[in-house]
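User: We ran a pulldown and think these components assemble together. Before we commit to crystallization trials, I'd like a predicted model of the whole complex to look at. Sequences follow.
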Amino acid sequence: MSEVVLECVEVAVGYDKPVLEHVNLTAKRGEILALLGGSGCGKSTLLRTLCGLLPPLSGEVRLFGEPLYASIREARDQLLRRIGIAFQQDALFSSMSIEENVMLPLRELTKLPLPIMREMARMRLELVGLGALAHRFPAHISGGQRKRAALARASILDPELILCDEPTAGLDPVIAAEIDQTLLQFRDVLGSSIVVVSHELQSIRATADRAVMLAQGRVAATGTIAELEASREASVFQFFHARAE
Amino acid sequence: MVAAATEIERQGRTAVVRIRGDVAIPTARMLYGTLRALSRRRDVKKVVLDFGNIGRVDSAGIAVIGLMRKSLERAGKKLELDHMSERHTAALELAPPTSKPPPREEHVTYFELLGGRLLETAATVRALGRLVVDTVWQAGSVLGRRRHLPAGSVAHHTLDMGYDAVFIVGLLSFLLGMTIAFQGAVQLERFGAGVFVADMVGVSVVREFAPLMTAIVLTGRTGAAIAAELGAMRVNNEIDALTAMGVSPIRFLIVPRLAALTVVGPALTLMSAFIGIAGGVVVALGIQGTAPTTFWEHVVYRVQLSDWMQCIAKALAFSWILGITGTHLGMRAGHDAGSVGRATTRTVVVSIFLIIVVDSLFATFTAIGRHR
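Assistant: Here's a predicted model for the assembly, 617 residues in total across the polymer chains.
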């Protein structure tokens, strides 16, 4: 059985009031898990809880078998260094070039010599198709390019788990397909597990091994994409089929 | 598995490097050092990297191998990878072929740089001029009741800019009035002219210190806030949204702020003048025993209506300077967070510079006027 890298046990997430309750899910090593749901269902809030930014209102989040929020600050930082996150709004530092943005985790968290850091950043930027834009600043590239740069930064340390918030939202189908391909490469070559928040059906079908459907403040269904598409559960059926119609 | 050892075996001019363990971030530095040392040796023509005992290869490992391949090729040497598993081959496929470096920016001569700066300055002046004309036009259309401002916006900005500044302006003015009175009393007493402390405090506070100090405090608080707020709105495309809706951003955002400053600037300046004089009264009473009524009579006698008019004129001019500067730089901020910070800093620096220049012009023209 594959090793579980991420586990939620009876988790409730939200700010003042719970947006999602009784969330139980697992992500296994080397799989792409999609968190699905309509707008405002709490996908991004759950992702913030999974990456250490928002403590759960109740329940437990376990990363690599360790409790994420029960641990002391240093231990939590150590756990978080094993994951990478690409935010929906890219979160690139505007005062740094794309290359510097991608190199930032290497500079802060490793003692690698500069030539290796540069080479790693170059490789990763080439991989996401931004090799020629390494010296540009975030303000001078398009939204899709910024998303790809954010993905390059999230993956630069070859994290065991990558969390992506809407990586293909708002992108044209060609660029979205390229990003899907990049995620698959991260899974297949780096062996990373990936949790993707998305409501882009095409991307989900192309990449996800399993999916967790969130609706009405709870987990509505879990399974492979084929299983979910065959589901008769109202919210799941509506998500997959109302859109297709 | 973590890399434990690197073993080098020489076979003539070939060096075979055998690594046990992972080639990953924690061990990449060591491998890089070893391979670089080998690449510099003259008696080594070929390096063979034996993957037989290598575990995981991550991006750092791939980067080291890529760098070494390039470095050896430049030195006319070869790198060979031996006993690679499918997993290693797949990992190395992550390394894309060497791309052409991005084209370097063309060298810019001094004259081109100077010309560029001049054009940039001209564009800034043009944009500033356009902003002023548009603001006057929009304000005129509001006054002519052809257009209207967002409901409650002037009152909101007036309260925001004025109410919160009352305490700090009042406190600073009181302390400044006291300081001027202290300094004046000490110097004037030496010439037996201590009675003129009130004249000195009154004239200097009303003509000079009240408008200048209020303007500086307002620049730090309000000018910077205007630039930051408009800059952030630009980053969030809020200004573009207004334009796309056919709503003038100048009428919607700038006119209410300037209208509020037109009220707040003179009001705070007058308050500052009276509180500054009150500071002088306290000192005069404390160290000279001058009665407050006597002090005030001196002030009324010395400070003429023209001085009060000058005080208000300065307050208006300074308020508009900081308002226009803040709005101009805020509206021209880029689409990144850093540009908002730069716009805010520049607003403070440019406003204070312009305020002092205009203040010196006021002083010069007033002096010329009095001599005639």
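Chain A has nine helices and ten strands. That may be worth checking against your pulldown data before setting up trials.

User: Thanks, that helps.
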